[in-house]
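Team,

Forwarding the record for the chain on the shared tracking sheet. I've put the sequence and predicted structure together so nobody has to dig through attachments.
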Amino acid sequence: MKLQKEFVILIAVICILVLVLIISSGRNKVTYKLPELDRIESDSVDKIEIITSEDSVVLSKKQDEWLLMPQQFTADTEKVNNMLNVVSSINLTELVSDKKNYQRYQLDQENRIHVKAFNDEELVREFFIGKVSSTYSHTYVRLADSPNVYHASDSFRSTFEQNIPGLRDKSVMKFSQDEITALMLKGEFGEIRLKKEIRPVAEAQEQEEQTEVTPQQKSVWLSQDGEEAEASEVNSVLSKLSSLNCDSFLDEEKKQNLENPVYNIIAQGSKDYQLKIFQNKDPEETYPSLSSENAHAFFLTKYVAESLMKKPEDIFKIEDRDK
C-alpha cells in the first residue's frame, strides 16, 4: 500500500513538471517574435554609409555609377552589389539575446559596423553588424530601433569591413582585344611599331597542308620593316592590357611627380589606349603607372609591369632576327 502511494505521488510530480514545461514553452513562443523587415529594392538605394570606431565610408550613386565620397573615386561594382544584397534582403532567423551584453557579439561601439542605407536622403535601413557565428552560417546583428541581438542569415561582416582603398575600382584599362589593329612599344631599346595584318592560312603557314578545322584566315603582326612578330607575345600584352587591374593607387598629389616613363605602350583600336610605366624606386616594389582610361595614378605589381615591358628579343622570332 505504501509503495502504491509513493508511485501515485511520483506520477503526480512528473505531471506537474510536464505541465510547467509546457506552460514555460508556450510563454516563450508568445514572447519570441522576430521583427518583420520589409524587403527593399536594391535599385532604390542611392547612398550607403559604413561607420566604424576608426573610419567611415560614404558611397553615393550618381547616374548608375557608385562613387566613394567626397573624393568621387569609382567604387568596385561587385563589392557594392554584395552590400546591396545584404541591405535589401537581410533575414533575421533567431533572437540571440535581449540583454545588452554587446561586447560578447562584437556589437559594442568599438567593434560594431554601423550601416545606413538611403533613398533620396530618406533613411530606409539601419543596423549594426557584429561578429560571424562559429558555424559561419550566421552573423550577429542589432537593429537601430531595438536593443536585441539577432542571428541574420549568411556571413557578411567582411562584406562591410571595408575602407576607401579597398572599395576603389581597380580596373584601369578595358577594351576588346579584337579591335586592336596596331601596337607601339617604347623602352630604353627604342621603339617597336607593329601592325596587324589578316592573311590567308595557306600564305601564313607557307602552303602547309590545311585540315577542315584550320581557320581560313590568320592574324599576323608585322613591324614597319615587314618582320613578323611572335604572335603569342603580342597577344600576351594585349590580353593583359584589355582587362588591366592595378594593385593600388598613388596619393593624388604624387601624380605630378611622375615624369619620363621607362616604358610606354599604345594599343590602337577605336581610339588609342595608352599605358605609361615609371621606374620603381626599389626592384622589389610595384611600378607607378598612368593609363589613358583612368584619371588617377596607380601601382602595378612587379609581375604585371615586367610582363608587359617586352623587349625586341621577346617580340621577334629568332629565325627572323638571324636572317
